[in-house]
Description:
Blueprint: H1 2-23, E1 31-35, H2 39-54, E2 60-64, H3 67-75, E3 81-86, E4 96-112, E5 129-133, H4 136-139, E6 150-154, H5 157-166, E7 171-176, H6 181-187, E8 190-204, H7 211-231
Parallel strand pairs: 1-2, 1-3, 5-6, 5-7
Antiparallel strand pairs: 3-8, 4-7, 4-8
Helix pairs in contact: 2-7
Amino acid sequence: MQIIKLLGTALTVSFICSANCLANGDDNAPMLIGYVGHPRVVTHYNNIIARTYSKLGITVEFIEVGGERGLRLLDAGVTDADTVRYELATNDFSNFFVVRPVIVKGATILLCMRNSLCENSVLSNPNIVIAATKRFHINIEESDIDIAANLREYDRFDQVVNLLVSGRYNYALLPTDFSDEATFKKLGARHLVIVEHNIVHVVNNKYLHLREDLSEALSSVLKEVNSIEASN
């Protein structure tokens, strides 16, 4: 337990030092970009964001953060940006901005395992237990669905998936960018779209002066990525 506390303290100090160096105008310090540990973020979106900043001659450093915790770190200026977030996440915070264009359309889905019933009525059944990533309730505010099911929240995407696969739960509420259809099929799972979202890059307000440049660079990178994907 003591080791865990020490590691936590060291990580906090590292965050603060990185943020202070940037705030003090240290040109050699990379921008510290948080990301949620979703496989698609790690293998795809981090690369898009790294290429975006590279076009502006800015180096970046990525660090994994939790869902809720990551947003609070960004809002406090401890991290400088988040790779991707649902756009509606900005509704609850005032110290970071969205970089246009929208990177991709995503959604919150109900994932159903082991031939379980997969329809909206599952969410209104208090006898059903559903695992969910934190902030799911904020993510589905735009829907008209009333949730009465017994919900268990976890901060990490992989935690929820592992518990689902192990048989601990038959249902989960998860974020997706619709790229994981093959994974769902391999798991023998079905899914139901609850509400769709814009997935965007967000940056702390101390970098508002980069907004237009980031927008142009991101637009260029997305065109390059889409062109490559279309040719494959």
